[in-house]
């Protein structure tokens, strides 16, 4: 695979929820081996753009193109509250066509790389916020996706794991993955190749100002 | 259905079972609810098996609603990971049907021993049909309504109205549990054709399953993107 190969391209993306516009003519392109930070104010549409790229939301305008499998890590852990980490690995692994043992071997290796003990038997509900987020991230990485879409994936991580997370980003780049990270951690922007900033839609910004005058 | 698809359906059913199996209080309530309805009326009415049987709908539809809503945050992610919406629905259906078997059997035996209906096998069939209709009903309500409160109120409303109406009343005929109620009535000696009531139940269950399948597929669908053009 060429290091220059475009794995994700989103061009002219427009999206509104009802009469509330969120994105207008937004664009994002990520090549193999590239890590891009997606930044912007609250309400700028970062999560919406990521969900559109993952295929979870439709667009009103524009086009998304993706090469290969997508691993998506939502901001809020999308997990079953009463299933254990191992059970999640088996379930998600099966979705990807992995056999039980394959899913467990691959998933446990990822969990352990984040410092999550592989013998943990608590259901997700009883895990700490950081461990639940590690499980969330592991499910996105299971099956070795080419494109990683990570929505503030380090929430709840302790300092050691947080630092370690950016080492993982470096490794994913070396493996030729295209990585998009929604982040508010502006101090870490030197760890990515490019920063894409989304602005709050102008119509909503005008609305904020007019409300402010009242 | 291929072996691979079957194994994917079974794994969804297994995980759904593990999830519900850890909610012990919910399981106890699932068993207790229809028995409580029946027990409250058994000493006062010879027709107690009708509300007792239909109350099974609260348990099974409630379990189905819960299965859908507790998975709401995960379903689309599972689809993105590779499951088809039909596989998730089939797994959920499989688990709930298996769960209903001991509930139906236990309730039927108890009601047969206490109330001595003239046609106990018809009563057993009727209670099974309540579960067969209630599960897709709960799946459809859960797929249509995004929150527990609204879904529970619809469940209470529909089953409550069905229970409060006489089986011969017009409105009763368009509600989901009319067929099973006719079967329950038949087990007490009613003359409505059992075959027709059975087919009506199966048709209603199939229609509800179709509706829940459509709603779920819409809710968790993934937009598959084309590959990027090169030389950009």
Q: How many strand units of chain B?
A: 0
Q: In angstroms, what is the radius of gyration of chain A? A: 18 Å
Shape of chain A: globular
> What percentage of residues of chain A falls in helices of 4 or more residues?
25-40%
Which CATH class of the largest domain in chain A applies here?
Alpha Beta
Structural class of chain A: alpha/beta
pLDDT below 50 for ≥5 consecutive residues: which ranges of chain B? none
Could you spell the SSE succession of chain A in H and E letters?
EEEHEEHHHEHEEH
Task: Write down the domain tally of chain B.
Answer: 1
Strand order of the largest sheet of chain A: 5-6-7-3-8
Low-confidence stretches of chain A: 208-214
**Full CATH superfamily name of the largest domain in chain A:** P-loop containing nucleotide triphosphate hydrolases
Overall tally of domains of chain A: 2
Overall shape of chain B: it is elongated
**Percentage beta strand of chain A:** 25-35%
Number of helices of chain A: 6
Oligomer: heterodimer
Per CATH, what is the topology of the largest domain in chain A? Rossmann fold
Notes on the protein architecture:
The complex is a heterodimer of chains A (214) and B (232). Chain A has 214 residues and is of the alpha/beta class. Chain A folds into two domains: 1-68 and 150-214, P-loop containing nucleotide triphosphate hydrolases (Rossmann fold, 3-Layer(aba) Sandwich); 83-145. Chain A has six helices and eight strands; from the N terminus they run E-E-E-H-E-E-H-H-H-E-H-E-E-H. Chain A has helices at 46-54, 85-95, 100-113, 129-141, 159-174, 202-213; strands at 6-17, 20-31, 34-40, 61-66, 70-73, 147-151, 178-182, 194-198. In chain A, strand 1 (6-17) and strand 2 form a beta hairpin. The longest helix of chain A is centred in the C-terminal third of the chain and has 16 residues, at 159-174. Chain A is globular. Chain B is an all-alpha fold. The mean pLDDT of chain B is 92. Helix content of chain B is 79%, strand content 0%. Chain B has one domain (3-219). Chain B has helices spanning 3-21, 24-42, 49-54, 56-70, 72-81, 85-115, 120-144, 148-164, 170-174, 178-187, 194-219. The termini of chain B are far apart. In chain B, helix 6 (85-115) packs antiparallel against helix 7, helix 7 (120-144) packs antiparallel against helix 8 (148-164) and helix 7 packs antiparallel against helix 10.
């Amino acid at each position: 695979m060429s290091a220059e190969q475009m794995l994700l391209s989103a061009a002219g993306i427009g999206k509104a929820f009802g009469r509330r516009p969120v994105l207008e003519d937004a664009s994002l392109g990520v090549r193999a081996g590239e890590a891009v930070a997606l930044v912007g104010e609250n309400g700028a549409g970062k999560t919406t753009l990521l969900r559109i790229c993952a295929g979870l939301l439709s667009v009103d305008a524009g086009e998304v193109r993706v090469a290969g499998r997508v691993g998506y890590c939502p901001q809020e852990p999308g997990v079953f509250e009463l299933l254990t980490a191992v059970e999640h690995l088996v379930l998600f692994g099966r979705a990807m066509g992995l056999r039980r043992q394959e899913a467990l071997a691959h998933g446990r290796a990822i969990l352990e790389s984040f410092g999550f003990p592989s013998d943990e038997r608590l259901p997700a509900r009883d895990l700490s916020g950081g461990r639940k987020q590690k499980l969330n991230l592991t499910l996105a990485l299971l099956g070795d996706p080419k494109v990683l879409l990570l929505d503030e994936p380090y929430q709840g991580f302790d300092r050691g794991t947080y630092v370690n997370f950016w080492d993982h980003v470096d490794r994913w780049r070396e493996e030729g993955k295209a990585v998009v990270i929604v982040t508010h951690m502006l101090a870490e922007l030197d760890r990515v190749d490019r920063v894409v900033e989304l602005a709050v839609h102008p119509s909503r910004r005008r609305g904020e100002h007019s409300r402010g005058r009242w | 259905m291929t072996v691979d698809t079957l194994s994917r359906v079974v794994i969804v059913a297994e995980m759904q079972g593990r999830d519900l199996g850890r909610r012990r209080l919910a399981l106890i309530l699932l068993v207790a609810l229809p028995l409580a309805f029946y027990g409250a009326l058994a000493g006062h009415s010879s027709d107690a098996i009708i509300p007792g049987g239909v109350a099974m709908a609260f348990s099974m539809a409630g379990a189905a609603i819960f299965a859908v809503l507790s998975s709401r945050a995960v379903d689309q992610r599972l689809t993105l990971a590779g499951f088809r919406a039909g596989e998730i629905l089939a797994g959920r259906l499989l688990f709930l049907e298996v769960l209903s078997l001991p509930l139906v059997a236990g309730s039927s035996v108890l009601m047969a021993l206490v109330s001595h209906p003239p046609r106990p096998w018809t009563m057993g069939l009727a209670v099974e049909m309540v579960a067969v209709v209630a599960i897709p009903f709960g799946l459809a309500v859960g797929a249509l309504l995004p929150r527990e409160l609204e879904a529970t109120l619809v469940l209470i409303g529909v089953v409550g109205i069905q229970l409060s109406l006489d089986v011969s009343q017009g409105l009763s005929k368009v509600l989901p549990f009319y067929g099973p109620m006719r079967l329950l009535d038949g087990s007490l000696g009613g003359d409505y054709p059992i075959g027709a009531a059975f087919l009506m139940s199966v048709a209603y269950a199939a229609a509800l399953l179709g509706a829940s399948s459509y709603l779920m597929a819409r809710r968790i669908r993934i937009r598959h993107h084309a590959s990027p053009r090169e030389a950009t």
